Amino acid sequence: MDTSYIYYAYGIRDFECTKTEYKGNTIIHHIQKRDVKTRCECCHSHVVVRNGFKIRKIRSVNIGTKQSILHVKVRRLKCKTCGADVYEDLHFVTGKQRYTHRLARLVIELLHRMTIKDVAHYLGLSWDTVKDIHKNYLNHKFSHIDIKDVKHIGIDEFALRKGHVYLTIVVDMLSGAIIHVGDGKGIDSLKKFWPKLKRSGAKIESVSSDMSAAFISAIKKNLPDAIHVFDHFHVQKLAGEALDKVRREVYNQEKDLEKRKVIKGTRWLLLRHDKDIFTEDEKKRLDNVIKMNEPLSKAYILNEYLQEVWKQDSYKEGEAVLDDWIKQARESKVPTLEKLGNSIAAYRTGILAYYKCRTSNAKVEGINNKIKVLKRNAYGYRDIDYFKLRLFNLHNDKITRFVG
Ligand SMILES: [Zn+2]
User: Fold this and answer.
1) pLDDT greater than 50 at residue 401
2) 219 within a domain of the structure (yes/no)
């Protein structure tokens, strides 16, 4: 077989094929370097002598439905100039990997449309090999992330495994790209991010996060000029939790067994928000439970009403709605809601900061949904570094069902 075939089919220069075997589903090409001038791998001296060889078995791209394996004769060269005594490098393979660059490129290409499992099956590779190829590719792609033009960031944390492994992500609010993944949660998780941000020269105008004291002080310290926004999701979550607490309190106090039955199991109806309730039966159940009990009714209305804070046209209107909301909560005569009113009042500035930068959460919510899909795939737990790299790649992953 001539050298140009080896070159065009496999992207391998200066090798010739000495023998081809056909074994079942496999084609084996025995290849060796043509007699071109040899150089020392270390000092590039031509004064070298051959000192034996070994055979490396390397997978390359399939030929039709057949798998192809290259049995490569790798020479060992001893250098008379520098004394090095090493095997020659192969230009078509990285280090000790057992697949060619061309096969790796094909895998990456296929992963745009297929799952790891499908690619592995199609090419006759192991799941781990396909994953490793993807991991190397992503490692290279994200070895440096340019953040100098980022202006609005969002910080969020999530559990990879409930109660065990936490990750904290920093998202570019405009592009939706994840620009940093920190281990753990809270203030320590961002220890490496702040110096990186400083070095990049980025001018951050706003930071969006939850209301934890750790983030508040870290942002004040590291980005004193940025506006700190408490994001809608986390504020709304507080109200939802208070609503659920009132529901449980009401349930425990209720003596009438029939009424208890009505309250029980309405948690999701209460928290779903009015506009998301479609069936007549659900509407009826919701009406029933709200009418039955005044504290629960107040909690429900406050949870719904809070959403209006983010739907106004101006800071002033938003402020008016929020202040009215706080007043109603504080005057509700329901201790849980009064307490909620006081908490929200304490977060007032950060909530209204939304109107000062108006970054939408849409991109971040999109990313959060993709993270959920990614998490469902167990490999994240087996190889956390790979999982993190997949996070960086998420906003490029248009078709999330293909992440497996
Ligand atoms: Zn040398």
Assistant:
1) no
2) yes
Residue 121 identity (one-letter amino acid): H
User: Where residue 268 falls among pLDDT bands split at 50, 70, 90?
Assistant: confident
Residue 298 scores a pLDDT above 90: yes
Q: Which domain holds residue 259?
A: 232-357
C-beta of residue 341 within 8 angstroms of C-beta of residue 330: yes
CA Rg value for the chain: 30
Residues 25 and 47 in one domain: yes
pLDDT at 379: 59
Q: What sections of 293-378 are H helices per DSSP?
A: 294-306, 315-330, 335-346, 348-352, 354-357, 362-376
Comparing CA positions, the residue from 94, 175, 90 lying closest to residue 139 is 94
What total number of domains does the chain contain? Answer: 4
Average pLDDT rounded to a whole number, residues 190-216? 93
Burial of 265 (0-12, 13-18, 19+ CB in 10 A): exposed
Same domain? For 16 and 54 the reply is yes
Please give the distance, rounded to the nearest whole angstrom, from the Cα atom of residue 92 to the centre of ligand 1.
22
Q: What percent of the chain has pLDDT over 70?
A: 95
Is the separation of the CB atoms in 299 and 242 below 8 Å?
A: yes
237 and 351 share a domain?
A: yes
208 alpha carbon to ligand 1 midpoint, in Å?
56
Q: From the CA of 54, how far away is ligand 1's center (Å)?
A: 20
How far does residue 86's CA lie from ligand 1's centre (Å)?
Answer: 10
Per-residue pLDDT at 194 exceeds 90: yes
Strands (E), 184-269: 206-209, 227-230
Query: 12 CA distance to ligand 1 centroid (A)?
Result: 24
Centre of ligand 1 to C-alpha 98, Å, is 26
> Model confidence at 290, in pLDDT bands (50, 70, 90)?
confident
| Ligand 1 midpoint to CA 89 (Å) | 14
